[in-house]
Design brief:
Helix content: 25-40%
CATH topology of the largest domain: Spore Coat Polysaccharide Biosynthesis Protein SpsA, Chain A
CATH class of the largest domain: Alpha Beta
Family: Belongs to the IspF family.
GO biological process, one term: isopentenyl diphosphate biosynthetic process, methylerythritol 4-phosphate pathway
Cofactor: a divalent metal cation
Structural class: alpha/beta
Oligomer: single chain
CATH architecture of the largest domain: Alpha-Beta Complex
Number of domains: 2
Protein name: Bifunctional enzyme IspD/IspF
Strand content: 25-35%
Radius of gyration: 25 Å
Pfam families: IspD, YgbB
Amino acid sequence: MPPKSIAVIIVAAGRGERASVGGEPDPKQYRPVAGAPVLSRTVAAFLDVPEIARIVPVIHPDHSERYAGLGLSDKRLMAPVIGGDSRQASVLEGLKALAPHKPDLVLIQDAARPFASPALISDVLTVLQTHDGALPALPLTDTIKRSLDGALVATTEDRHQLFAAQTPQGFRFGQIFSAHMRAATVRRQFTDDAEIAEWAGLRVGMVMGSTDNIKITHPEDFARAERIVLGDSRMETRIGTGYDVHQFEAGDAVWLGGVRIPHTAKLKGHSDADVALHALTDAILGAIGEGDIGIHFPPSDMQWRGTASVVFLKHAGLLVANAGGRIVNLDVTIVCEAPRIAEHVPAMRAVIAEALGIVTSRIAIKATTSEKLGFIGREEGMVAMASASIELPRND
């Protein structure tokens, strides 16, 4: 039986920029996976293990409000600790916070690994009965090449001796705390806590890792994470369409796809009259059976006057997440004679991707003219059409 005093450090102090989908980086640990933020899922995985006595999150100094917004509450969950300028320094801050409580064992977990199962955690704790440290690892299946310059192969490694390390990594608290304190005095950055333990002469055992115990690093990892949560077999694809039209009035710019484009007029509307985002919002709402934009944001309600339409789009994305769904792809067509749209498409895709937490490769934006026909040809207004493909859990 493992000792009763087991603590967990969840390292969530990174900026998560590699998982950004455009625009201002949204830290990956706070982005949703099937309706729940990554960090919330990671914390919940350890709260599901009754033997764990304390959990201390280590967060970035700029993320205090984001963490508070998760609404996490459990008597075993300690107040978050501010991390350092590296993962190694952040773990040390977590160890310092736990030191007064003198736990017997400590598990150190990356916040971006939300799928550590109770069985995997138990395996790590079991190995700690006979070793100073333990970590889950997976054997490598690809042939591994070593290169000195990234261009020419120098040698082929023996993959049978190579393993991919995962977390949680477990240790006897006093030993890893001492090792981390010593490591902080040397001019070297260690890649993980097991490396620090090895450097300190501790015996670290391995258990079989899990292919589902992924580390969310890049934007495409979120799609895989959602498949792990929801299971492909439980999903069905829904299609929604949207259409919107706005006339021009006196002004100097139009808002399209969340981007301000200088023009000789502006679009008339209750909000910012972003015809592209209105059509796209309606397409998403249609795919999940949630009516249209006017139901959620009535033009008769003055609180929405002048509102940026990205607010409406984010709301539709949240409804998708709350329904346990995921956006597969979005397609928008803008019809106008002017202004020119093509050069602004990358910025539009980035705004939409950021608002919905998806990669830009899932978004298409096209523009065409009406060949000088009709009200569009007379440059009296413009039209946008959109479609949305969304996967939702089956409810039949």
